[in-house]
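Technical note accompanying the year-one report. For the benefit of new consortium partners, we illustrate the data format agreed upon in the data management plan: each record pairs a sequence with a structure-token string. No post-processing was applied to the example shown here.
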Amino acid sequence: QRSTEAVPFDARILLLEDQMLIAMDVEGMLNERGYQTVITTNSADDALRLLKAQPPDFAILDVNLGVGTSIGVAEELKRLDVPFIFATGYGDGGMIPETLRETPIVKKPYDISAVLAALEHADKS
């Protein structure tokens, strides 16, 4: 049972981000806040493989992956009832289908407080 007050420190967080320097930065920010289990990948295919192996407790998805988008991963997370948020650096909101429009979105560059607040909101919805 997940806490409804905050994202628990033992949560497994999937981070799908195609820019590895940005991904390392976000992972570091999460680690500094006490989140030690951050699984980082840079492709939708890898993320889908990870979901099949062991679904995370939460996920952070960069919308635009350069080659494709994270929409397929988002749809699978929704099917698995895993809370997730989208991250976008520019007008990627138009890529999000109507069925996922309720998903919290954080703007890039990442602000760790905004990310955690959005994850908590995603967990409650």
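Partners are asked to follow this layout when depositing records. The beta strands are 12-16, 37-41, 58-62, 84-88, 105-107.
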